[in-house]
Amino acid sequence: MPAGGAPRSLAGNYTAAPVSRRRLWIFACLLAxxxxxxxxxxxxxxxxxDADNDGFYVDAGPITYQLQISRQLNQYNTEDxxxxxxxxxxxxxxxxxxxxxxxxxxxxxxxxxxxTTTDNFTIIDTQNNTYFPIHLNPLQNxxxxxSMVLAPDxxxxxxxxxxxxxxxxxxxxxxxxxxxxxSNRPLxxxxxxxxxxxxxxxxxxx
Length: 206
Fold this sequence. Notes:
Mean pLDDT: 81
Helix content: 10-25%
Largest sheet: 5 strands, mixed
Strand order of the largest sheet: 1-12-11-6-7
Number of helices: 3
Radius of gyration: 25 Å
Strand content: 25-35%
Number of strands: 12
Structural class: alpha+beta
């Protein structure tokens, strides 16, 4: 090492101190930009959410909807059987080429006046096949999603409800889907609200 302790580069020249300061300055700028973008992502509520997005928020009218979890149900599982209560009379169990699929949603009124949550949902696959939720009797199934009026800052399911205190902390949309959806992923949940030209969408895990 030469006198003065300054390191040499491979070319034999001294590494200039201003270059090190410049690198630190660039790093600081990049860090600040990344933190700023992350903050923007936390505050924004888009109308489209990507896959692997459990817990993601989307706006649909004055209501913000959050996907808590989506998954296939096993009718023989103790937990899952409770989600299959309140089926319409005459509903048959899934055939060998069908499956039960549950979407658990949470919603909050972000506006300053009462607003009604939607009951208009569809799932579409990559082949544009459309699937509709099965209407569950909320008197028999406390997890069932139902349209309701929310006061400002109120949420669905409510804080003191079984849906909120259950393992999913969401209200249930139940679908019966063909097993061909495994070949037509990703699935997309469409949230339709009056007055909004396009549906808000969330990609679902399956």
